[in-house]
TrEMBL record:
Protein name, per record: LysR family transcriptional regulator
PROSITE patterns associated with the record: HTH_LYSR
InterPro entries: LysR_HTH_N, LysR_subst-bd, WH-like_DNA-bd_sf, WH_DNA-bd_sf
Annotated SUPFAM superfamilies: Periplasmic binding protein-like II, Winged helix' DNA-binding domain
Organism: Pseudomonas typographi
Keywords of this entry: DNA-binding, Transcription, Transcription regulation
Domain HTH lysR-type, chain residue ranges per copy: 1-59
Family the entry assigns: Belongs to the LysR transcriptional regulatory family.
């Protein structure tokens, strides 16, 4: 067993068990990933991965336990590498972990503002599901997490709201739903629906759409907003998405209707480990993320007594 095999295992969960995506993320070939995963199972003498028609679809019961340990081991190895690199260079390191949607749509502007002010800081953007974001923050693999909603059960973390997220109904240009300024839930059921169901999201929107879509002509579930928009653009169905993933300039061919009258507008959260800020650049990154997060607000959140959400 070697660290590379464990990294492949960890990246599987971050890339929806897609081997080609794992290969791309780790700058290697798909056959190399498959060979190393098979070799790991052979060395351990147990099945770690569930497969269907040679395609990996998840972990076995033992695989889940091994993957959890692998995340911790890889995080510790990364920390050792960070210590080594910091001793050889004066450059600073900042590690941010978030969902695919926020990394793809929200962070580019933030990163651009940040690196203009701090060009010597090396930034790593990690992506993961909620449990992976939590694990990375608690283990020290990441300095800052960005969440789409509040996870109150993790008392070791503090959640600082930095913005809100409205919901948009999207449809192809010229779609019948354009005639409604404020479509009702009943009117949504008149059309095929592409439901955006990320593994990182809570179930409020998805639950509502699942309930009403029983009367829809057809329903397709997708876990990636780019895929959702591609399907909608082709006229396969309409969808409800977070407002920050839609851009009139980039999404030509789509119309967007504000759905805040149908769905609540949840907070977006910056998440830090309670009672611990070891990297001063965290304050600067949060300031680039939102001018409403000055150092005093962050310190009050991180070093305060009360668990859960903190008002910015």
């Amino acid at each position: 067993m070697n660290i590379q095999q464990l990294k492949f295992l960890v990246e599987l969960t971050r890339n929806d068990f897609n081997v080609s995506h794992v290969a791309k993320a780790l700058c290697t070939s798909q056959p190399n990933v498959s060979m190393n995963l098979a070799s790991l199972e052979q060395e351990l003498g147990i099945r770690v991965l569930k497969r269907k028609h040679r395609r990996i679809i998840g972990f076995t019961e033992h695989g889940e336990l091994i993957a959890t340990s692998a995340r911790t081991i890889v995080a510790e190895v990364d920390r050792i590498i960070d210590i080594s690199e910091k001793s050889k260079s004066k450059s600073e390191v900042l590690r941010v972990i978030t969902t695919h949607s926020q990394a793809r749509y929200l962070l580019p502007d933030v990163i651009e503002r940040f690196i203009k002010e701090f060009p010597n800081v090396r930034i790593t953007i990690l992506q993961g599901r909620n449990d992976e974001i939590v694990d990375s923050l608690i283990s020290g693999q990441a300095d800052i997490g960005l969440f789409n909603f509040l996870v109150t059960k993790h008392v070791d973390l503090v959640f600082i709201p930095y913005g809100k997220c409205d919901r948009l109904i999207i449809a192809p240009v010229g779609h019948e739903i354009e005639q409604y300024d404020h479509p009702s839930l009943d009117q949504l059921t008149l059309y095929p629906m592409v439901i955006y169901e990320p593994a990182t999201s809570n179930s409020q929107v998805v639950g509502t759409l699942e309930r009403i879509s029983k009367d829809s002509p057809q329903v397709i579930h997708c876990t990636n907003t780019d895929v959702v928009k591609s399907y909608v653009k082709r006229g396969i169905g309409i969808s409800v998405i977070p407002d920050f993933v839609y851009s009139p300039a980039e999404d030509q061919g789509l119309i967007a209707i504000n759905a805040s009258h149908l769905f609540s507008s949840p907070n977006l959260y910056a998440v830090l480990k309670r009672q611990k800020i070891t990297n001063a650049r965290i304050y600067d990154f949060l300031r680039a993320l939102s001018v409403g997060l000055p150092r005093s607000v962050v310190d009050a959140a991180v070093f305060g007594e009360a668990p859960g959400e903190v008002e910015a």
